[in-house]
Amino acid sequence: MTDPVVLYSKEGFIFTKNEKNNYSLSFPIQNNSIVLSKIIDFNLIKLIYDLNNDVYEKINMNIINENEAISNLLMKHLFKDLGLPQRFSYLHINKIVEENSIKFISETIKPEIPEGMPANSELMPIKNMVCDCRIITLHQIQFICNIQFENSMIIPQVVEKLVGIILYKIFNRVKQFIENVRI
């Protein structure tokens, strides 16, 4: 295993390539007005999507119970000019609560295609994704997400950097929203 390569870093957000088809992103969130662990649930994932309707074309979150959900989302065709297909994800998500961490572990649902996806869109080949919200204090968490794509996924180097910029935009909106909540 090689050392991670930083693809994008800005204002505490770090997006790295750990090895082929294996990436991580990390950023802190702090809000002294709320106990952050109380808002880390599937509604937080929905908030990520809702705050980024310029990135996502369609979103569906089916919360089965407090520890399980099914999510499918269609990304806007951001890389059409590069000849890449429009992508969607179809994920089964489990929430695991530990002493100082709340994790969302996602696996792709295959070979099913969720209703309403365009015929020419392709499933994002996510092997697994683990989003770990590490509780530092009542008012501070460190968000760490590791994503591993199937070996069949070929990600051009220029796209890796663009993905870092898009992920920063997505998660910075969420971070700002949460950090500005006042109760």
General description of the model:
The protein is of the alpha+beta class. It has a domain at 29-139. Helix content is 17%, strand content 46%. The chain has helices at residues 42-50, 157-179; strands spanning 5-10, 13-19, 22-30, 56-65, 68-75, 87-98, 101-108, 122-123, 126-137, 140-149. Strands 1, 2, 3, 4, 5, 6, 7, 8, 9 and 10 form a 10-stranded mixed β-sheet that branches. It is globular and about 45 Å long. The N and C termini lie far apart (45 Å).
Write the layout of secondary structure elements.
Layout: E1 5-10, E2 13-19, E3 22-30, H1 42-50, E4 56-65, E5 68-75, E6 87-98, E7 101-108, E8 122-123, E9 126-137, E10 140-149, H2 157-179
Parallel strand pairs: 6-8
Antiparallel strand pairs: 1-2, 2-3, 3-10, 4-5, 5-6, 6-7, 7-9, 9-10
Estimate the strand proportion: over 45%
Distance between the termini: 45 Å
Radius of gyration: 16 Å
Mean pLDDT across the residues is 91
Which short descriptors sum up this protein?
183 residues; 2 helices; globular; 10-stranded mixed beta sheet; alpha+beta; 10 strands
In brief:
This protein has 183 residues and is an alpha+beta fold.
